[in-house]
Specification:
Blueprint (H helix, E strand, L loop, with lengths): L2 H7 L2 E4 L6 E2 L2 E2 L3 H10 L3 E6 L6 H10 L9 E3 H12 L4 E5 L2 H9 L3 E2 L6 E4 L7 H12 L3 E4 L5 E4 L3 E4 L1 H12 L4 E2 L5 H11 L6 E5 L2 H11 L2 E5 L6 H4 L8 E3 L8
Parallel strand pairs: 1-4, 1-13, 4-5, 6-7, 6-8, 8-9, 9-12, 13-14, 14-15
Antiparallel strand pairs: 2-3, 10-11
Length: about 260
């Protein structure tokens, strides 16, 4: 059995989104063909993203605008994982949040509240509204005892036109430096995120494939959870990138279209 035949034989597929299915607001050429193949072959699939900016409804609508109609149950985000972690750690806790609507909605849905005076947690997710003012506020609150949480450990994210933009860890870093406190990061490759993903998929890790464009989140998450790993070169990684890591994917593909028979 070839590597591609092995991948095609798997029951479940966990896919990253940005850099795998789309760049920014542009669908990647092979994405629709791949999703149609998943549906035709009755594969279990889940889009598991470290992005916390959008809710599942918004992610579905974004893909609809690109020509893909995928039910909401096929999406799981780092915002949901973060909010559920906080609710289990300290039910009813309060949060000072730097992030977009998807993160705020997830926090509210878990029965948590927003508090900029004496919160239990400072939570940071990727956002275009990052400023010196909210960074300074976060530093003050963490120094006063709030625990620091990042929605994901990515330092950069792909954008349209082959650009990269700062992601969550880059935004958390100044707060860590100023306070001397290290954040706890949810999102891939955190095993809590991966266990939730396999549970939602209804599939054991050995029967699943993880497809992503990042070695330090997607591929290591698959390796550590026992899934088959596919690195696609449609996002931030190149073949040279792979050589920088002491581990590697099971297979490297140019894009997800190469999985389709």
């Amino acid at each position: 059995m070839t590597d591609l035949e092995l991948i095609r034989s798997k029951k479940g597929f966990i896919c990253d989104m940005d850099g795998v299915i789309y760049h920014g607001n542009q669908l990647l050429p092979s994405a629709k063909l791949f999703v149609e193949w998943l549906q035709k072959e009755n594969k279990k699939f889940l889009f598991l993203t470290n992005s916390s900016e959008r809710s599942r409804t918004e992610l579905r609508q974004k893909l609809q605008r690109m020509g893909l109609d995928i039910p909401e149950e096929h999406f799981y985000t780092s915002a949901i994982a973060t909010a559920r972690f906080l609710a289990r750690q300290k039910p009813g806790c309060s949060v000072y949040c730097i992030g977009e609507a998807g993160l705020l909605n997830a926090i509210y849905e878990e029965g948590l509240t927003i508090n900029d005076v004496n919160p239990d947690y400072v939570v940071v997710g990727p956002t275009q509204n990052y400023s010196f003012a909210n960074m300074a506020k976060a530093v003050d609150l963490v120094r006063k005892g709030a625990k620091l949480i990042g929605t994901n450990p990515d330092t950069t994210a792909p954008a349209e036109g082959d650009r990269i933009i700062p992601d969550c860890k880059a935004l958390v870093a100044p707060i860590e430096v100023a306070t001397g406190k290290q954040a706890y990061y949810l999102g891939k490759p955190n095993p809590l995120m991966m266990r939730s993903g396999f549970h939602r998929l209804g599939c054991k890790s050995e029967d699943a494939v993880i497809i992503g464009d990042r070695m330090d989140t997607d591929i290591i998450a698959g390796i550590e959870s026992g899934a088959t790993t596919v690195l696609v070169l449609s996002g931030v990684s190149t073949r040279e990138t792979v050589e920088q890591f002491p581990y590697g994917p099971n297979i490297i593909l140019n894009d997800v279209g190469e999985i389709v028979e």
